[in-house]
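Can't attach files on this board, so I'm pasting raw text. These are the components:
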Amino acid sequence: MTKNEDTAFAANNRNRVRRGLKRASYDKNLVYGIIDSHFLCHVGFEVAGQPYVIPTSHWREGNKLYWHGSSKSMMIRHLAKGNPATVAITQLDGLVLARSAFSTSVNYRSVVAYGRPRLVEDDDAFNYHMERFFEMLAPGRWSELRPMTETERKATGLLEMEIEDASAKVRADPPGDSDEADFPVWAGVVPISMGQHTPEAAPEGEAAPLKHGLLNAYNLPLR
Amino acid sequence: MTKNEDTAFAANNRNRVRRGLKRASYDKNLVYGIIDSHFLCHVGFEVAGQPYVIPTSHWREGNKLYWHGSSKSMMIRHLAKGNPATVAITQLDGLVLARSAFSTSVNYRSVVAYGRPRLVEDDDAFNYHMERFFEMLAPGRWSELRPMTETERKATGLLEMEIEDASAKVRADPPGDSDEADFPVWAGVVPISMGQHTPEAAPEGEAAPLKHGLLNAYNLPLR
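---
Top answer:
Structure tokens for the assembled complex are below.
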């Protein structure tokens, strides 16, 4: 294995970025960082020629992506059989207003990852990965929760997908048409970001105070 | 056509929501409202059994979705041939922390829409729909822009997709396990929202002041 194969996904017919090449990267650390920056992903798969796209929450360990759902859901059942999945993670960072429609763009960080998921069936592995997910959302919370019942465990399908290949695209620039700077229209970037707000306790009241930080792993400033 | 068919998409084998039924809706106004609430979508399609998911910007008129891209891109070329597309729009509204892992959830508004796009080839229609997109992003801006050149027009593929069917899912509730309210762990919702920040002029300086509002069509408060 060459150094490059250690640190970057090989580009192939599936993950090679064909448009906007200067935005593209196969660097694993960049890909992993974007994956870890959000817990919302969109999972694509196809059944009998019909494409499906399902939003869900994901997390990562090493070169593997994880997401879960109802074990009875079409997505989990279909992908547990080893069918191919495509997982997209997208962060929207700004609207880029250029002097022309053609140069108008958005700033973003996105990853598309490809693989064939499998079902995590071992209970210890299931618990380990679910705890890691909660460590991203609310560190320390997993051990405070009412433990999972056997019925709940059976109703939950956890998928693990080794990332076979992936690509990232990133745009983080001002308008690309500075050569048209004299054209008399304002040009620039409108930054966009996501944030969190003060937690709202359940209406039935607080049985215990909120002890842990929330969403620490994501860049979600308190508004 | 019955009243219901006027106001709701018929549920079929493709768009019927099978899990979380109480979150599901086929109401057209709800579907359209969620589509219009964001300009980021994820487009799914498949080529020779391989699913693809591409993030892009969309807009809507009536029962039709629009998005554009490089006319040479795999997505535009593939979908211009009449192949099926699935478009997902997802708004993340909060992290729902329940007393159990099983009841932990997110608040969200999401739509998945199905159809077979076609390329908009007529120039008047192309300009009309592009102007409508800009009216969502920056009202009044289209007519201020440096006009599109013929080369740029040829390089831009605009797709139009009649929504054949769609479904919405919405969760906007506190934790669902109020029957376990005595369990001694904090439970509630961490609201999440997206916002915009003060526009940043291009570094080469302002050739004209910013005259129009920005992103007025979306709920993106200024932070």
